[in-house]
Design brief:
This protein is α/β, with parallel strands linked by helices. The chain has 15 helices and 23 strands. The chain has a seven-stranded mixed sheet, with helices on both faces. Strands 18-19-23-20-21-22 form a six-stranded mixed sheet, with helices on both faces. Strand 16 (256-261) and strand 17 (264-269) form a beta hairpin. The termini are far apart.
Length: 450
């Protein structure tokens, strides 16, 4: 089959292209901006990439066009597909029909922690010799790729509630039909398509309806929104984590912590991954792996070799005694958790937090009132005000009393201000769900020139 993917450089679609290539399909694709690292990865696979969405990219006609959810009516390629009557589908639907069918799907859903938990779970199963397939929204350091077909029955997928395509407004995760499902947490997000938290809870309720009675739901027992979802109806056994009658943590110290199940110690996990949120991610991954036949002791042993995920508190570089981190956090809860984890590591050393409000929800201002509290653990805060944000970040800076909080409207002025503020021993945490205009490299280069 010749597959042409519109929006191929997106996280999901780039992973789909890799899986399709591994499965023996001919793959080509188009995107508005074809750039590394995804473009490099795909070119190395032999995937033909086209810049822009011109009709000639679809000539001769492929067997199927997979349309990413960033595209809509009016796009030249979309209009050509419809006018020519070419076969088309969404990314989640293609995955369901051609990759997930017949597999034991382990899906990781929730507002936060999907990528890290999926990576942990994939590594646990890999460490146990099960050779799982996976499609994750980031690059797990233990694998070096975000997707692979795998040779065993198990397939781990990051299950997102965002819509599937312009012609299919169902959440992506409705297509995946997992046997094992992790529900990490649930908060308001995706303000561009959901009016409130209740609307998202409704979609999670539909997701629960797709899980068989012989499967397993692994839910965060401390999350009120998830409790409401499960109360609406669940026809599958449920295990909870973060609670005393389920999966929990005991005797936490700098050297590690005990993993408990129903009050019984399963083993002690010693690792260097930061933050209480990652401890919860570990509990969920261990529980899911147990459902797939991996003992908690095996899972704990695997996690002690877990290397983390790119762009999740990743050290980008060190220059002039200053450590620069790259992190994907773009929701106030994730920002607060990331800062808390870094504070645990660096103690009283100064943390300079740098934020680009890039997600659709952030750009709509849905989190403007909770953003300042999420940054409270930083010693200095730098906020980037893009020209098309639509609301002013000055109120966030003003709310950060007793902090050095600044708002800057260019990458150049931002890199200069950060560099002038730093001193040896500082930690610069740069947070964005995009490339942030190469700010990480700019800051490091300026630091090296001091």
């Amino acid at each position: 089959m010749h597959l042409h993917i519109l929006g191929i450089c997106g996280t999901l679609m780039g992973g789909l292209a890799r899986l399709a290539h591994e499965a023996g399909h001919a793959v080509s694709g188009s995107d508005q901006n074809v750039y590394p690292p995804m473009s490099t990865q795909l070119t190395q696979l032999g995937v033909t990439l086209n810049e822009g969405y011109r009709a000639e990219h679809l000539q001769p006609a492929p067997d199927c066009v997979v349309i990413g959810n960033a595209l809509s009516r009016g796009n030249p390629a979309v209009e050509y597909v419809l006018n020519q009557g070419l076969p088309y589908t969404s990314g989640p639907e293609w995955l369901a029909q051609h990759i997930l069918r017949g597999r034991w799907v382990l899906a990781v859903a929730g507002t936060h922690g999907k990528t890290t938990t999926s990576s942990m779970l994939a590594w646990i199963l890999e460490h146990a010799g099960l050779e799982p397939g996976f499609l994750i929204g980031g690059v797990a350091q233990n694998f070096g790729v975000s997707a692979r077909l795998g040779s065993g029955p198990f397939f781990i997928i990051e299950a997102d509630e965002y819509d599937s395509a312009f012609f299919d407004k169902r959440p992506k995760f409705i297509h995946y039909r997992p046997r094992t499902a992790i529900l990490n947490n649930l908060e308001f997000d995706h303000a561009d398509i959901f009016p409130d938290l209740a609307a998202i809870e409704q979609q999670f309720h539909y997701f629960i309806r797709t899980i068989p009675g012989s499967g397993l739901v692994i839910g965060n027992g401390t999350d009120e929104a998830l409790a409401r979802v499960l109360k609406r109806g669940c026809w599958t056994p449920v295990e909870r984590f973060g609670v005393s009658d389920g999966w929990g943590i005991h005797d936490h110290s700098a050297e590690g912590f005990d993993i408990l199940y129903q009050g019984r110690i399963q083993g002690r996990l010693r690792w260097e991954v930061l933050g209480a949120h990652n401890q919860m991610n570990a509990l969920a991954a261990i529980a899911a792996a147990r459902h797939a036949g991996v003992t908690p002791a095996q899972a704990i042993g695997a996690l002690q070799e877990f290397q983390g995920v790119q762009r999740r508190m990743e050290v980008y570089g060190v220059a002039n005694g200053v450590t620069v981190y790259d992190d994907f956090a773009h929701h106030p809860t994730a920002i607060a958790a990331t800062l808390h984890g870094l504070r645990q590591r660096v103690g009283t050393a100064r943390i300079l937090a740098v934020l680009e409000p890039r997600s659709n929800t952030m750009r709509l201002g849905a989190h403007r009132h909770t953003l300042a509290p999420s940054l409270s653990l930083a010693d200095a805060v730098f906020l980037y005000q893009p020209p098309d944000l639509g609301w002013e970040l000055s109120a966030v800076a003003a709310a950060l009393t007793n902090k050095k909080a600044r708002v800057l409207d260019s990458i150049a002025s931002l890199s200069e201000a950060i560099t002038l503020e730093t001193r040896p021993g500082d930690h610069v945490l740069i947070m964005s769900n995009g490339g942030f205009g190469g700010l990480h490299e700019r800051v490091l280069e300026r630091l090296k020139s001091l």
